[in-house]
């Protein structure tokens, strides 16, 4: 149970908080990667990786997770208009870190109309595109337990994380000009609690714990779904981003796009890699060489100078026969 | 009055002994320096967000948030300022036959041995290259920059398009900084050039050596008296 203070990462979201106060168990010493900080000190210890498993086959679309998320994070999503769809709000926003996305699928094989509901939000990639793209030192950090977190006081609101993310998750607030997304309730995990969404989920479609346990649980769920005729059931833990710390059990794992365009093979775009890789390194080197080279050559090389002869030629040209002084 | 081919209205011989030639009027110089100042601010703020090793440069502008806010506005200022400069300079920067010979003999130019080369108008091929490179890169930078201007145009283009815009913006930025370094270096290396953009004039010898056709045209105009 999570109440055991000796555990470095909580194993479940369903347990109630410990009675005795607990110091935060997730800090600067647990950061394994930070944006724009290539020379980060190594972490002081290694936490057990955690994960949130979302089993879409058990989801009933109640949005308790969204409510719990807004409540715990104290966000206030704008009240919008009903446009005839179940998504509410219409998209992830700086005030809504998770969103139930609903899609209707007319299954050609069975003739069934399937209502596919996916809880969207940050996937907490092992190789996070947001972190790679971010120019602000320490604005995005990754902990050794797998959580990718935005440190808002370091964020400059440039939107590069939006460009870097393969899942279209971060949202920049027009009020505070910083970027927001799911934190995997890092502040709860730090004190032995699972994420608010997992705690609130009435069907245990969202479960949380050590990633190893979650994989084992997901495999059981996949086997169960297969036994019920969902032969393409499977785990969505995409390798292109090194795996994720939020992952899905899907009944149609062969067609993730059915679930509101969940990307088939997500990875950091090669365009982003090119921008943040070779362009950044070679670009700076070229500028540095050109600047230093021209200063050195300017100081040491021979300048192109105008001679007295040139000046004389100009005088001849402009006024070949200077008139006598007039009075 | 004869039609100007190698000079700009306003270019004239200012004094004859010694010869000084007016190359840029006050408006053009002010316009140039507003553009140059914007480019330097953009260079420093852009580099700060380009490479972590240079993030400390955000301190010059009041921190990361302020730098992120400022950079695109200065970009707009640069665009319009350069556009006004462009309108004044583009005609004399159109390529001419002698530019080819000049480029072919670039080695002589670097040796400072310009006597073997054709006589030139107000600009040589190197200056023209800088002018057109700046013009093209500024257009690329303003277009790609607006595409990634998070505060005002967050949904202008799709995320994949934004990725390309970011890459193109960085490459164009590197290119324009290299062009800028070349421009500043050439202005220093070719002694007597800087005063054209500070005082507005150059010496007759400078004009004779580097832009003889320009000087000849201006000298020809001077010889026609007002009563003629």
Folded structure, characterized:
- Chain A is elongated, with a radius of gyration of 29 Å.
- In chain A, the strands form four sheets. Chain A has a four-stranded mixed beta sheet with strand order 9-2-11-10.
- Chain A is an alpha+beta fold and 327 residues long.
- Chain A has helices spanning 64-73, 129-133, 160-164, 186-189, 196-200, 211-227, 270-300, 308-318; strands at residues 31-34, 50-55, 99-106, 113-120, 140-143, 148-150, 171-172, 179-180, 206-210, 234-236, 246-250.
- Chain B is mainly alpha-helical.
- Chain B has helices spanning 26-50, 64-89, 97-104, 106-111, 125-147, 159-189, 195-198, 204-210, 212-223; strands at residues 12-16, 19-22, 201-203.
- In chain B, 62% of the residues lie in helices and 5% in strands.
- At the A-B interface, helix 3, helix 7 and helix 8 of A face helix 1, helix 2, helix 6, helix 8 and helix 9 of B.
Mean residue pLDDT of chain B: 94
CA-atom Rg of chain A in angstroms: 29 Å
Order of strands, widest sheet of chain A? 9-2-11-10
Could you spell the SSE succession of chain A in H and E letters? EEHEEHEEHEEHHEHEEHH
CATH superfamily of chain B: Transmembrane di-heme cytochromes, Chain C
Main sheet makeup of chain B: 3 strands, antiparallel
Content-based structural category of chain B: mainly alpha
- Amount of beta strand of chain B: 5-15%
Helix tally of chain A equals: 8
- Sheet-strand content of chain A, in percent, reads 15-25%
Oligomer: heterodimer
Greatest contact pair? Answer: A-B, 54 and 59 residues
**CATH fold call of chain B:** Fumarate Reductase Cytochrome B subunit
Which percent range fits the helix content of chain B?
Answer: 55-70%
Low-confidence runs of chain A (pLDDT<50, min 5 residues)? none
Distance between the termini of chain A: 110 Å
Give a summary of the structure in a few sentences.
The complex is a heterodimer of chains A (327) and B (228). Chain A is α+β, with helices and mostly antiparallel strands and 327 residues long.
């Amino acid at each position: 149970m999570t109440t055991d203070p000796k555990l470095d990462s909580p194993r479940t979201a369903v347990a109630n908080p410990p009675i005795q106060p607990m110091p935060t168990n997730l800090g600067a010493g647990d950061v394994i990667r930070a944006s724009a900080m290539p020379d980060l000190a190594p972490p002081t210890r290694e936490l057990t990786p955690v994960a949130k498993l979302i089993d879409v086959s058990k989801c009933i679309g109640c949005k308790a997770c969204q409510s719990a998320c807004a409540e715990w994070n104290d966000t206030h999503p704008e009240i919008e208009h009903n446009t005839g769809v179940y998504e509410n709000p219409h998209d992830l926003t700086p005030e809504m870190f998770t969103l139930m996305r609903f899609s209707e699928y007319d299954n050609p094989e069975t003739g069934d109309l399937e209502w596919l509901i996916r809880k969207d939000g940050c996937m907490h990639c092992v190789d996070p595109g947001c972190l790679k793209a971010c120019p602000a030192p320490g604005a995005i950090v990754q902990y050794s337990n797998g959580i990718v977190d935005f440190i808002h006081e370091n964020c400059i609101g440039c939107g590069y994380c939006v460009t870097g993310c393969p899942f279209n998750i971060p949202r920049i607030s027009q009020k505070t000009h910083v970027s927001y997304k799911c934190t995997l309730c890092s502040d709860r995990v730090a004190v032995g609690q699972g994420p608010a969404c997992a705690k609130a989920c009435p069907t245990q479609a969202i479960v949380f714990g050590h990633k190893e346990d979650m994989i084992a649980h997901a495999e059981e769920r996949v086997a169960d779904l297969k036994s019920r005729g969902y032969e393409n059931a499977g785990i969505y833990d995409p390798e292109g981003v090194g795996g994720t710390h939020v992952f899905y059990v899907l009944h149609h794992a062969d067609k993730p796009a059915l679930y509101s365009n969940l990307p088939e093979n997500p990875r950091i775009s090669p365009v982003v890699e090119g921008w943040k890789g070779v362009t950044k390194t070679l670009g700076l080197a070229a500028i540095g060489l050109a600047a230093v080279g021209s200063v050195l050559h300017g100081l040491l090389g021979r300048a192109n100078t105008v001679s007295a002869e040139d000046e004389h030629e100009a005088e001849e040209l402009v006024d070949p026969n200077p008139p006598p002084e007039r009075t | 009055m004869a039609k100007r081919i190698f000079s700009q209205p306003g270019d004239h011989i200012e004094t004859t002994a010694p010869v000084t030639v007016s190359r840029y009027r006050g408006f053009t110089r002010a316009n140039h320096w507003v553009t140059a100042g914007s480019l330097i601010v953009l260079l420093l703020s852009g580099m700060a967000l380009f490479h972590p090793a240079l993030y400390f440069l955000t301190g010059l502008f009041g921190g990361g948030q302020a730098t992120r806010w400022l950079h695109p506005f200065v970009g707009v200022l640069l665009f319009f300022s350069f556009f006004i400069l462009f309108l004044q300079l583009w005609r004399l920067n159109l390529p001419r036959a002698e530019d080819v010979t000049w480029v072919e003999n670039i080695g002589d130019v670097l040796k400072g041995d310009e006597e073997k080369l054709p006589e030139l108008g107000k600009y040589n091929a190197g200056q023209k290259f800088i002018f057109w490179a700046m013009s093209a890169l500024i257009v690329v930078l303003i277009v790609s920059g607006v595409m990634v201007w998070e505060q005002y145009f967050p949904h202008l283009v799709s995320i994949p398009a934004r990725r390309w815009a970011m890459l193109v913006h960085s490459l164009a930025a590197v290119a324009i900084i290299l062009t800028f370094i070349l421009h500043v270096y050439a202005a220093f290396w070719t002694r007597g050039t800087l005063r054209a953009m500070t005082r507005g004039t150059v010496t007759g010898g400078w004009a004779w050596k580097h832009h003889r056709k320009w000087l000849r045209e201006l000298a020809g105009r001077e010889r026609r008296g007002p009563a003629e």
